[in-house]
Queue: 4 jobs
Job 1
Amino acid sequence: MSLNQIQEITSNTTEKRACQNARSYLIFLDYINLNKKEMKKTLKNALMTLALLAMPFAMQAQTKFHDVEANDAKGAVKSLTVSMMGQEQKTTFTQDGKMQQDGLKDAVYDDNGYIQSAKMEAQGMSVTINFKWEDGKVKTQTTNVMGQQMATTNVYNDKGEIIKQSIDMGGQAMSVEYSDYKYDDKGNWISRKASVMGQTMEAPRKIEYYE
């Protein structure tokens, strides 16, 4: 075999290998690009799925109200009926926890759904109520009736029970003490005793829940 033939064979072999390597490289690039596209598509789908899943939770967080907690209860409460001195007062709640009561209007909430103020129309009078919260509980409630202000401050024990309410009525102070709490299986009180000005009264409470 001549030198020229050897060189020709070697040259052809080198070219073939170069072509094969080039084809392999192009196939590899196509594979990489395809996988990039698939990865982008998969990532996009994953992000869209996460966004769709997050929307209901975001809406729930924005529409959840804490009026049940403002009434010293918790959970999926549908209504509360409190009896005191022979009179009953019923408060109902929507499924997202917003309070509904005859005469209640113009309720103002913060971004977390905690009531800050509201107006109550009763017996021809307009009453403005302001709330101050502390650790998820109502600390003070200020009521303004025809220019007269009454401030109620709640005192809680370690269990989260209201054991005392200090009431300031335009400089005149009084207090109500609570004891002997009884609870339902949801952890809400259904009976307690209230002591005011030397008299102790039973204060039962009926609770309805959403199923």
Job 2
Amino acid sequence: MTDREPAADRGEAAPPFAMTGGVVRRDGREVLSGVDLRVAAGDVLAILGPNGAGKSTLVKALLGLVPLAAGRTEIYGEPPARFRGWRRVGYVPQRLPMGGGVPSTVREVVASGRIARRSRWLPALVTDRAADRAAVDRALEAVGLTGRARDSAHLLSGGQQQRVLIARALAGEPETFVMDEPTAGVDAASQAALAATLRGLAEAGRTVVLVAHELGPMEPLITRTVELEHGRVARESGPRVTGSRTGSTAGSAA
């Protein structure tokens, strides 16, 4: 692979994510191998595949949370280490972190999603604080947790905790959402709530990258799928895919 200029330097509209020849190694083996992936604005992309295929590793590599051993990845035209527009991206991890100290309420966890929108140097204005409160209220309502706002987040069920994490991302009002297996181990009610939230994001033109084993009620909302096998892109489908893509031609190492 040869180095190339970021899309922004070439005068192009940079996509939310672009990976070229992405390789991730762990314990001496390749977890991702030569992955090429471009996520366009407005995509609702599902990353599918069996356990150990590299799905979570791929989204973490897109975000710069896992370093590449080879290849290149960009967020809105910038390498993750140089990217400063984190307010544009909302990340939903697989589970709520178990931190020490005083347990956080649901509202406090959701409100932390506003941090990326604040100035590091200037105090929050009254209007900013009001906007923060309104955004948190909307996010809690969107996931059906308004009535649990004062409860300890760590005492909720797994499905409810996942909805808290989604609300945290919603509160930040980003352009792009990355969700790492949001339906894993959650009940049918939480899956339905997620599908409703996803529908709203799609209708608003937001970009969504979603890791899943199976899509369930979210399937009608997905515009593209990428299926991984053994760290490679084996198959793609969707309106932006041209021609047949298989493991020998898409995302394979040369």
Job 3
Amino acid sequence: MLVLSRQRDETIMIGDDIEITVVDIRGDKVRLGINAPKDVSVHRKEVYEAIKRENRDAARIKPEDIPPNAKPDNNNA
């Protein structure tokens, strides 16, 4: 793991197109601003792990396990 020190308003570059900027520091909390291309997903680790877990669980569901009268959720389309 690379460990870098930065102060408020300083930026770290990842590759040519991802910028991570220290926006604020208050006590033991650091606020980061992240600029990344739209095709790069950016999540807090706990959210990323929850998404992976939900996707893995959804992949285990067999079509025959879904009730015939169940309607698809089109709100996320």
Job 4
Amino acid sequence: MPPTDTEDLPPATPIPAWLTRSSKTRRKKDSHDLQDLGEALVAMPDGRLVDLPMDESLLDAIRQYRVTRTHEGKRRQMQYIGKLMRRNDPEPLREAVASMQLGHAKDALALHDAERWRAELVASDDALTTWMADHPQADVQQLRSLIRAARKDASVAPEQRSGRAFRDLFKFIRQQGTAAEPAHADDSDDEPA
């Protein structure tokens, strides 16, 4: 019959160090991930880089990468940036890169939304009713005059859609869209407790 007491079991042997450390493949993958993060940091504007929590040597290496001309020099400098990043905590840097990329995506989405609204407003009067329901603070008279001018431009030169009236209507829609965003954010904070 097998022993049931833990006292009868032989003492556990310690796990060798080579089993607890990560594999070479894993270390290389981590190194490549840090290099990719370094490439994203290099693409960031200098004003944002200064505010990030990183060593001065890493900031200098990023600036040096930007002035390096040759392909091989850039490759080696990027490897050096990856090496320096192993000394730093990469999480704040990843968060900064992700927030910048999210900001770009939001800007692109706002542009596409404004273009869609412009096309709908020029195409039909029903879109104006929908717009006014979504944006009650908008100046109806100005919007109607902009729509009229854009339709007039479209009827005169259908192949030239980038007339002044189209641009003015687009600017108006963008301004109203950005003015409406903070109002929607405030509405979400006023939830009943």
